[in-house]
Amino acid sequence: MADAPSVASPAQHLRTYGQIAWLWIRAAWQYPTSFVLLAVGNGLITGLDFVGLWIMFAHLRDLAGFSLHEVALLYGSASLALALADTAIGSVERIGTYIRTGRLDQMMTKPVPLLVQVCADQFTLRRLGRLTQAAVVFGWACSFVDWTPLRVVVAVSMLLSGALVFFGLFVGFSCIQFWTTDATEFANAFTYGGATVTQYPLSIFPREVLVGLTFVVPVAFVNWYPCLYLLGRTDPFGLPQALQFASPVAGALTMGAALLVWRTGVRHYTSTGS
Amino acid sequence: MAADPSQPLIDVRDLERTFDVRRRVEGRRGRLRESVRAVHDLTFSVDAGEMVGYIGPNGAGKSTTIKMLTGILVPTGGRVSVAGLDPSRDRVPLARRIGVVFGQRSTLWWDLPLRDSFDLLQKMYRIAPARYRENLDRFVDLLDLGAQLDTPVRQLSLGQRMRGDITAALLHDPEVLYLDEPTIGLDVVSKGRLREFLRALNAERGTTLLLTTHDLQDIEALCDRVIVIDHGTSVYDGSLAGLHAEGGSSRTLVVDLVDEAPPIVVPGASVRRVEGPRQWLSFPADASAAPVVAAVAAAYDVADLSIQEPDIEDVIRELYSRGG
């Protein structure tokens, strides 16, 4: 019998993820027209978000003290992080359906961790449109930034950490479906709600909201804090500058918490079978 | 990691699984929590290379047992070991060594061609390319799937899909194959071909088979041993012939006479029902049908004859009511 090592490393999981995802991309490419239309449509719809901001600035000089290109930096970075995470999570949001149809049981008989399978299942690049659109806005906004080597590092880590934060939120809140399968709206309030909030400078909100977006649903780390550093601005709320470098920590913590919740969810499933 | 040959491949001891069910009770607020035993005091073991039929009525605990054997469900009591592993604790490593086919739920990817589904599984199980090609060629040939390889799964017939599912479960050379109702919904030809394939698989590779089924003919064709489960525990473990003897099961000869007649009288069989020219005669399942058929044909003008196999549910009901 083929006795492959029973404990696979995270790198191997990532490779398996990539291989499964690649097969799905190849399968989608069987219908190139539909693939292109989906991606373009997705890009156009999400592009309207930014057009909305643009129109707003036709009537305002600034938004809570932030100019259009500064808001574009916030919008572009959050949108990029969201598109990356949204692409990577694949089918996590549909975990409830997987439970109902018995698909999850099928997956549990395969030698790949459940989270890797669920995320890679039905992998799609439908977010390619949003990704492109966000990258264009972000690129344009970047041309106004006064770059230093440290700012480059912060910008790159911001995108990766932001994607991690969103990934963790999506996974974590999807786990509610292990207990009750009708909670998608509730979960969306935190995930997509959190994503929408990050399109604006958080200084438009009262301090209490900011505290919530820092410590409860930590989307403020997706773009707000690191962008303050990129733009060379002092924190309008007078919070310590250390927060502007803390995005990787927030990303890792969110991810860790999400994995813990996921494990608890799976354990609940295997112990109740419902 | 190879299994100890002196140990049974599947070992189940005093296995128990209870579920908490919440039930509304009239006249009371809220819900009552109740504990339901889906499986209890279940003990059996299966040696490598055996072909075992695991049968019982709906809701008897068959699926719950399979889920515990595959690690999908954690037992609430007792012990279960498969290939020396604890399924719920070592679910992922165990997955490489077992194959599972759920008859009514396909493991294949609906929108992908069969070939892509198989490729995905190769990646998941990390099957060596040479071994993968060899297995795929062989199963595709034996199960006659060559023409369907590039068809999306949703366009396959039930029989083709089942053969695809069985191939999918075998590509990684599992030691045990669990089959849950593998022939459900298949036509007679497909059923026969599938049984033949499973027999060959067991003979050539020594793959252990545990199958749940409602179709006694599956058991007759494949299994030397039957475990009957009812109300969550094993009520019979032995040969199929023994089951018929113990359950007092009977087969039915349906006779269409040319003209209406009073109930047929022949030795070894008795009339159960008469409806116009059609009569139903029952005779013991372990007896041969030939003398009964010959006696009827000799004494009456027969238009048509057919034999109905005993219904497994009836056999078990009989067995259970006798066992108390």
TrEMBL record, chain A:
Source domain of life: Bacteria
Pfam family, one: ABC2_membrane_6
Organism: Nocardioides cavernae
Coiled-coil region list: none
Transmembrane listed as a keyword: yes
This protein's name: ABC-2 type transport system permease protein
Keyword Ribosomal protein: no
Keyword terms, alphabetized: Membrane, Transmembrane, Transmembrane helix
Ranges that cross the membrane: 35-57, 63-85, 152-179, 209-231, 243-262
TrEMBL record, chain B:
PROSITE patterns per record: ABC_TRANSPORTER_2
Membrane-protein topology: Peripheral membrane protein
GO molecular function, a single term: ATP hydrolysis activity
Entry keyword annotation includes Nucleotide-binding: yes
Keyword annotations of the record: Antibiotic resistance, ATP-binding, Nucleotide-binding, Transport
Biological processes annotated in GO: response to antibiotic
Taxonomic superkingdom: Bacteria
Pfam families documented for this protein: ABC_tran
Domain (ABC transporter) ranges: 10-256
GO cellular component: plasma membrane
Protein name as it appears in the record: ABC-2 type transport system ATP-binding protein
Species of the source: Nocardioides cavernae
